[in-house]
Amino acid sequence: MGDVPGRLVPVDADLETRAGVARLVEQVRGAAPDGLDVLVNNAGAAFDRHRLTPDGVERTVAVNHLAVAELTRDLGWPARS
Fold it and tell me: Which one, 2, 14, 47, 50, has the greatest CB density within 10 A?
């Protein structure tokens, strides 16, 4: 394995809430103002009890589906020309 160009910038997020996803988008935009070349959505969760998020969405749906869709949309992926 050779050197990989670029840099690693750790970010944190609460993917259960829309506000948490919005904060993540802002962190990513701040770290990569020219945009991303690659986006890997690899978050997921499984909960043992049914509970709604503060946004009124079941947690599994919020994290595994809505957060991914909002993150991808809000970061402009795929890149627009």
Answer: 14
